[in-house]
Fold each of these.
Amino acid sequence: MKYWACDEDRQKVNAAFYRTAFASNEGRPHWADQLVACEFKVEKSRDGAPQDPFDDVPGGVGGVSPATSNRGKKNRGKIISYAELIFAVQQRIAVFMLLVLGRKCRFIRWDRSGYVVTHAFDYYVQWQFFVSVLWRMSQCSDTRLGLDPTAHRLFPGDADYIRMTEAAKSQASDIDHKERLLSDDEVPKGSFVFKYVREAFFESVKDKHWPRYRVEVPDGAKTRTFLIGKPTFQAKGLAGRGTRGYVALDCDAKDERFVWLKDAWRAHYLLVDREGDILARLQKAKVPKVPTLICHGDIGEQVTYTPQRWEEKNSEPFLYPTPDAMSPLSNVAGPPSSSGQKRKFNADREKGDMSPPKGLSELPFRPECPLRLHKHYRLVVEEVALPLREFKFGRQLISVVKDCVVAHYNAYEKLSLLHRDVSGGNVLIYPRLVKTADGRFKIAFTGILADWEMAKETTITGPRQPVRTGTWQYMSVALLTGNKDVEVCDELESFLYVLLYYATRYLTSPFNDITIANYLDEFFDKFGWLDGRWVCGDKKKNTIASGDFEIADSGMLRFNSNMDDVLADLLSWFKAHHVVTRYEAEAAASRSAAPTPQTSTSDLKSDAALAPVRPRTVPRMSLPRRKSTKLDGPSNEDREMARCASDHTAVVVLLEDAERAIGWSLNDRAGDRIPSDWRTDSTDDLDSTYISATETKNKKLKASGSLPLSPA
């Protein structure tokens, strides 16, 4: 079978159901047109191993569980990847799949919360039931089969399809986004488009196999429409928010206007604010360096069904009801199992979607349910920004991060708002046309702090959803070590890790590329397992404790530039904060401990009488004694540096001073320091596919350490 061009991984599902108008006989899996995917397997492999990705468990919770055999895990990973690809290529609410295993088969329904799967049944014996299901599916509308009715497919010849093709063509008025002073003839006379924006839109429509859509986005009581092609950004993994970002064409704008459209399945809980509502508040408060809201809204009543199915099968007070063993339709329930060994977790570096702790926090939201409830949501903002990896030199990296700290400071001071997901994927570059003091114009790179969907006011106490928020690789040591609320110091520590990651990966340093890749992997992707929860990895924890960036063989990370001083100063502040916080916690625990009862003299005499001291059997000698482990109190210098770790102004001043310092090179960028053929350690847990922090540009990694996709 031939693969389909829009699939970089060249996956080959065995068959699929199509509408008659889209059916093809060329032997390719047309991922854009499939309604129901079909996978065929013999019941057992040549070595006798069962091929079924699931096990029927009579009397168990839901009656079906994920197979634990290596063959079952592998096949489950394969069908998950098929469903993930269909979600990526099409505009979907759910995906249906038929899995045939010799004489048996299963039907599966996938959504962004998990999946519902039937018992395996013999379609030869139960042919009437099997045929009935297939006939009913053939009579279903596209919406019933999981397609999103607010996304309208475009085809060659459609006016909007042609409009997209024309908009992708370069124009003489387009401006290069390189930082520079503009000559008089470069200054735009009216509206203009940066070249990188139009090029990104061209990349989204150049693949004729990738479908184009006109999608609807709520705008108060009205509805606006936008034209999209292939997503510029796409979060890895099937379960979760499934975030996709598009350079979109605004259908309602008088002039040609490109915007950024975000399509996601947001956490749907009563007290969780929508990102657009947060952006509107930021704009009203005149918080700088944040995205400019155009419109946003929930997409109808599109919510994930799998958690509802779990509730139906596990309704209180009978938490684990006995399933109807005679019914061929069932579903799986129960939290996924996980290993206690230390493993690697790999999430999408450019805005991760699957942090290790998610779904495991002890919160009052039916914690026994392994499923998150999601609702479909779209957001449109004006700025089509560049990812942080596009910075050109170290000083520019400092400047962009500084702008985002300023945005964070203003949100905190004006609205008591914490971002709670400061990460490399959310610190963006936005080129602006700026007028200088002498009346000239220049292109300047500025920073934008994006993705405010997890933001929360400090005045709100208690969890609002049954997950820990944040991107694992950039979270503070304190957040990854214990249960605590996010504070300013945690967010500022995350900015340190953003600087560290991008400086290490893209700037010149005296270490070879393999050493750099291994260091980033160990610092950002490793984690530990303690008392039933994922905790901070040793490299990050030891770095904060020691105050040194030890990279390998007792060597210290260095760039031989001003970046060394910036990172060292910031790290010293967070080390001091760690020392002060630990000391104060132990002092508080000591004060709260109950005093030891005093022993009276009479008791001593009585004890001596009961246990008389025996005469020495060896000569007396002086023995070395272990010194007291009582911590000395932090010094005044420690306390002052610890204060800086929670002070936006201190961090901004430090970054501004570094930005203005002399000695920066404009040629300190080395390109990507992670070799294209570098690989992290991995195992065969294929329940999820995702990208690590140290993912190479050319190949996708599959590694253990993720939360498995949860069944209902």
Amino acid sequence: MEGLIRILEEVKPLLRKGSSNFTFNKGLAKIVTKGKCIVIGDVHGDLETLNKIFETIDLNSFLKDEDNIVIFLGDYVDRGKYSLEVLEKIFRLKLEYKNQILLLRGNHEISKYWDVYPSDFRYQLLEKFRDNYNEIYDRLIDLFDRLPIAAYYEDFLFLVHGGIPIDVKDINEIANEEPNTVIQLVWNDPFEGIGHLPSPRGIGYLFGIDITMSFLGENGLDLIIRGHEPCEGIKFNHNRKVITVFSSKVYGNEYASVLFIDLGKKGIREVLF
């Protein structure tokens, strides 16, 4: 347990620490490098697929170039068998490459503002730590509250776990971390319609193409990249202006994927696993 606590305490102050690749306005990260970027979607405790991704993309070689970055879109835990191991692996990666790893928050990184049922992660923690469960759980909640909630690359990309809030026009409003805004950032989903609808998830909203186009236009952006929805690799919404990437196979999907992005050239390609 002491080893895990040490990792949590070491990684927490780094989660919103600026560098030559990222700057932060509270929970909103701005990407400033013009290097290459790998975007990894939901992992959900799928350690096997995560290991395969790291091996296939030769992650350590990729990160030898200090201008290159990796962005995780959240949902590290639940559903898969190895949530704690996934968290530890990703946190160790952040400790090793402090200035090149950005960890966003997903809806499964639970909060005082929402909960997730069933939460397999809780049972895994209870089984492993038993009498120390409450201490570990509280430390994780505190750490999850430090995870950035969105990121952007000027004139190009907006990255988030769930979707854009239906009532936010200016991207800088996100930095205020108003609870309803944070909830929507991690819970919202796109739908092929106009306007917005209550989400069938029971929290958040479905947002239509008009909301996407207004947000992109208002902020001078081209694309939204998000996770949150299981799919076979990636899927497109809103005339290909919204890209969903899913990097786990725990929902029975045949493929997982990551995105390779050349930030300087504004090029994107998908890699399937």
Amino acid sequence: MKAGEAASAYGAYIRSSAWRDSVARHAELRLAGFRCRICNRGRSEVRLEVHHRSYENFGRESVEDLTTLCSECHAMATEALRRRRYRDAELPPLVDTPRVLRGRDAPPCRLRG
């Protein structure tokens, strides 16, 4: 599944009654005391969301796959996880661009000092 398709499937699932009515989702909210597990603010103060700690069981989550966060902490956690994935991603091999542009047999470029 491509990234765009995965994001679309994720969004559709999160908006679905299957997610809203999920036993695991409701169990996690109750276990957290209807409070954000990071900042400890409650549902009377903030909008609570249930974050997927893992996507291995996406669509058939257990309570261990989920954690309750307020919308602010959820946004920060999501951004931090994205940065970590980007940082840890393996870079493709670097290409000697001038050599590619001039041809494979061209001598390497020399920088002037």
Amino acid sequence: MKNIRVVGLCVALLCVSCSNKQTKGIPIQTIQEHEKNHAWYYFTDSTFLPIDRPQNVPVNIERPWTEAVRISSSATEPKTKTAYAVVNRLGILEMTKDKMELYGDNTLFPLNTADALVFSDGTPVFYLYKSTFFNQDMLSLPQFTSTEDTTLPQLSRPFLIEFNTQSKTMYPLVSYDNIHLTNEDQITGLFWNGKTWVCSAKHMSNEGVTFSYFKWEPLVPLTELSPALNKDSVIFYNSSAQEYRSVNTPSLFEKAPQEIRTLLSSIPKSYSFYLTVKDADGTSPKSYYHEGTDEKTANAFAATKGACGFTIALFPDGTTYVSYEQNGKEKISAFRLPLLPQGCSYGDFSLAENTLYVAWEESNFYKTGRAGFLSVDLADVLKLTQH
């Protein structure tokens, strides 16, 4: 760590009151570059390692994004200010202000795609699925077939997984069988509002592909569920494609939370982007679409102000907008993260107190090569006197 060479961040401070939404035309001050306010990391097939910059990360075999080691989802636990990231095919990354630990489970991660991190009463929960497009022979795998001894129960695929923050281990909460699905079915999407889960599932057979839609609610706290006990602990409802789309289709940006719209009020109207917004309640993020005149549409991420005290929006080129309180006034700052190599972009992020953790990855159409994350000391970048 002491020998890591770090390139400074270029920071532009707008320093405007959030009550003044007209941020256009305000002079932008460029702050002098600083050293050691951020650090790079990359993933191997078994862990993460520090690197001086992503250009020097060893070349990695490109894999479909559902099969690659990469951060698929990241969020902050509101009460403890601890950041978590689901590292696909590898495990859960737990990040505090100055410490990072990776926890894996060889029975869950190597053979499944992991995504969609949420929190139930402070406990990280995520879901597992397997892409049928990239795993045509998935049903022949041992864990998806019944045993020769018919007196033994058939193994049921895990669906929702809890990461227990005390024991640092994974526990299945809900199986495919619990939500009336077979091992031939595949969850293709979901949304959780804190009470009800709305899901879509795909079924492949010799007759073709069919989709079904359903919703379910646990009768006990989510983390008290168990695949062996869930027959009487879950209420199941049929749903429809229309209902599923109503909670998963991006809304217009004008319907985004006011603090997010204020934060991004200086962005040109011509800029087109999708924005995935995480709330402090830990439920599924909501998506919004800003339609501009640009042909290309960026995929950005944002988080409303939580216990850490920041409202943040981050774009794939590293442009980052932050709203925070300083000296009793709400201010907006903008800075750009270090330039990534060609073919790489920034992704999801989470915050642990003043430390921002940002995913990055190298992508080529639907495939991912090298991937990792960047840690940024916001207090140093923004020169905060509080938090």
